[in-house]
Specification:
single chain; 243 residues; alpha/beta; TIM Barrel; nine-stranded mixed beta sheet; 9 strands; globular
């Protein structure tokens, strides 16, 4: 039985402020096989790593990312909300992480946060950055906006994309294949044995999110999914080590 990859959700976001370099480095230190991140675009067109469309929850600032320049965004403290230990942590740009991962055998899952704000040119900019750093081969792009995934495949058919979804889908591998997707990224409670079996039969890997409880991690780890996205890479590592 092939063991699933353990992918740090926004890094090791149970232990460090999400989507920061501190969180990414912590995930790697805890043995993560990959990282899942969220990318949006600043007012002046930079690729910034942040989950929310606004900075209010995860920084000491306020406002929409699309309304702030990179210089304004990087003045914000993105760590103190989590713990004083991380005071001064910054919102990173995608290139910061790509530079950190250069030469490592790490899977990078980039979620394009363009379901609410339709950032024009987001797909092109991400593909350009991956090309510069020569990381297309170890990256999967995902989104809840499946039109964006269609666009990506049109721009670069070789890049892997995965459909994010929450609701239970009937034969999701058929839908995914119909739009040229390479994988399924469902919420964990919609992952059933029959879904895993069907996906395997149709060579459609499953990367499921966000699995945090030990019992859930152990259950999912035994279902032969391709990857488990978790806030606790150490728990995930322990779960797969029991297989």
């Amino acid at each position: 039985m092939k063991r699933p990859l353990i992918i740090g959700h926004r890094g090791a976001s149970a232990y460090a402020p999400e989507n920061t370099m501190a969180s990414f480095k912590k995930a790697l230190a805890l043995g993560a096989d990959g990282l899942e991140i969220d990318v949006q675009m600043s007012k002046d067109g930079h690729l910034v790593i942040c989950h929310d469309e606004r900075v209010d929850r995860t920084t000491d600032g306020t406002g929409a990312i699309q309304a702030l320049t990179l210089k304004e965004l990087q003045k914000l403290d993105a760590g103190s909300w989590f713990s004083k230990e991380f005071k001064g942590e910054k919102i990173p740009v995608l290139e910061d992480l790509l530079d950190c991962l250069r030469g490592r055998n790490i899977l990078l899952n980039i979620e394009l946060k363009n379901g609410i704000v339709l950032y024009e040119g987001l797909e092109e900019k991400i593909l350009e950055a991956l090309g510069i750093y020569r990381m297309e081969h170890c990256t999967v792009l995902s989104s809840f906006n499946h039109y964006s995934l269609l666009k990506i495949k049109g721009l670069n058919p070789r890049i892997k994309v995965g459909i994010l979804y929450v609701a239970g889908m009937v034969r999701p591998w058929e839908y995914a294949r119909s739009i040229g997707a390479d994988g399924l990224h469902p919420i964990y409670y919609s992952v059933r044995p029959e879904i895993v079996a069907g996906a395997q039969t149709h060579q459609m890997p499953i990367y499921t999110y966000t699995v945090n409880e030990i019992s859930d991690l152990e259950k999912i780890a035994g279902m032969e999914v391709a990857g488990i996205i978790t806030d606790y890479p150490d728990r995930g590592r322990n779960a797969v080590d029991k297989i």
